[in-house]
Design a protein that fits this description.
single chain; 121 residues; mainly alpha; 2 domains; 5 helices; 64% helix; binds zinc ion
Length: 121
Amino acid sequence: MLNFPGKTLEFVKKHLLHQQREVNKNLRGIEEDDPAKSPALAESSEPGTDSYIAESHAKRVILQDQLMKMKNTIRLTLSKIKIGTYGKCDGCGKWIEGERLQALPTAQYCLSCSRKTPRVR
Ligand SMILES: [Zn+2]
């Protein structure tokens, strides 16, 4: 962690912990008001209701998936802070650019690796 002053790391950690709380809160919210799980709506026989439920359920599944991914990334980043490898590129092992981490604290790859593999961040 040569290029990371303790203060910066502490800030990133705080930011991630806050984000983690938000993500968990959103995930709970999604589970709670999924209409597909609500007995009142599921039993309704009104026309169009089924497709409405299916559609909004599908949207929730996508959102839930995104939140789960975010949750995993946050957890991964926090564990990297803990073991002291935060800021190292998963691709080439070099340090990720400081500005990049500032813009995207959960970045797992340096700029050149993320350019080589457009799907990774
Ligand atoms: Zn790299």
